[in-house]
Design a protein that fits this description.
Length: 302
């Protein structure tokens, strides 16, 4: 039995049960791709309305995926959508939702205080060997996990919007993430069909360290009156080959989330002019114009 024990010890931990906290744009996409790979998913949010909206969104996204996968076969499309949906359970009870999880992925608001509070609560309710991760866009893991007792089982899984379409997953390790945890997170990424890259615990990791300053500089350009928003978007699509211009992209990401990123980086780097509050952005957020998800941001969506 000693031999058995030592064999099982070296066996890599397999993720079967994934719990996702936050059922917004990102959480619903992460739930969807995990379910598509036949993992048992629990999706958690604060209220039923958010969960209902997420369930509807997942359903229509799955229908789009199915249409491509099974072009002329309506029955196969249906089977795929219904079959995948069966892997997803929803709940507003966080403690209940995380108790069987092998892997927890946090995708709530981009606010350090709210995230820290959630992680302190999570650690009390998960299995002792569960891996805890954050999908943060801009914050440092060492800040989010400051009060965690078990920092070895904590890492980052940074997805891209729209999750079902974007092939990249940034796997982040902070100073104390164990090799085992890092390996399991990479295996999970491969299991859900993503290409993974290794990131250190630096603000914005790889993609957002380059992409977010570009999006902010576009705001500054329009605030200075150097160009119109429409022209900036046309220019970057036709002149740089981007699928969306920076304003279309900010609408896609969410103006509230973009402002959270800007505010957080302004606090961390108070002398950097790029991160100073943007009137253009703040005004829209104050008006509830949060981008595509609310029906209007820089542009209107019907
Ligand atoms: N679910 C399923 N399928 C989807 C989908 C979704 N949510 N969104 C798009 N698709 C698929 C569909 O199959 C669609 O075809 P149908 O309309 O026939 O169903 C196909 O993609 C093409 O989509 P569209 O014709 O609507 O538009 P498109 O060709 O412009 O592609 C896009 C959409 C893939 C989103 C593309 O515009 C794009 O790549 N945009 C840039 C996205 C980007 O940069 N994301 C990163 C944001 S930053 C981030 O995420 C990090 C952060 O921390 C903030
Ligand atoms: P969102 O606003 O669409 O959704 C956030 C969800 O979290 C909401 O449904 C809200 O009700 C829920 N929530 C908030 N606090 C909660 C709590 N304490 N417990 C449970 N649920 C809670 O936001 P999003 O765009 O999905 O972003 C989520 C996270 O993912 C953020 O950290 C963001 O920076 C990151 N991210 C966003 C994008 C993007 O393009 N939008 C891309 C990558 C990463």
């Amino acid at each position: 039995s000693n031999r058995l024990l030592s064999t099982s010890k070296v066996l890599q931990k397999q993720v079967q049960n994934v719990t996702i906290i936050g059922a917004g744009l990102m959480g619903s996409g992460i739930a969807q791709v995990s379910a598509q790979s036949k993992l048992n998913v629990v999706l958690v949010d604060q209220n039923d309305a958010a969960l209902q909206k997420a369930t509807k969104g997942i359903h229509s996204s799955l229908a789009r995926v199915a249409k491509k996968k099974f072009a002329e076969d309506a029955a196969a499309q249906n089977k795929f959508v219904e079959g995948t949906t069966k892997y997803i359970k929803t709940t507003t009870n966080i403690n209940e939702g995380v108790k069987d999880a092998d892997l927890v992925i946090e995708a709530i608001v981009e606010n350090i205080d709210v995230k820290r509070k959630l992680f302190a609560e999570l650690e009390k309710n998960v299995k002792s060997d569960a891996i805890l991760t954050t999908n943060t866009s801009s914050l440092k893991l060492s800040d989010i996990g400051l009060n965690l007792k078990n920092k070895q089982n904590f890492g980052g899984l940074h997805f891209f919007n729209p999750v079902p379409m974007m092939k990249l997953l940034e796997v982040v390790r902070h100073a104390e993430t164990s090799d085992d945890t890092f390996k399991t997170l990479n295996d999970y990424g491969k299991a859900i069909g993503k290409t993974t890259v290794a990131c250190k615990d630096t603000p914005g990791f790889i993609v957002n360290r380059l992409l977010v300053p570009y999006m902010f500089e576009a705001l500054r350009m329009v605030e200075r009156g150097d160009a119109t928003m429409e022209d900036v978007d046309i220019a970057m699509k036709l002149g740089a080959g981007y699928p969306m211009g920076p304003f279309e992209l900010t609408d896609y990401v969410g103006l509230d989330t973009s402002k959270f990123i800007m505010d957080g980086w302004h606090k961390a780097y108070p002398n950097e002019p790029l991160f100073k509050p943007s009137d253009l952005l703040s005004k829209k957020v104050a008006e509830g114009k949060l981008g595509r998800k609310s029906g209007e941001g820089f542009y209107k969506y019907t």
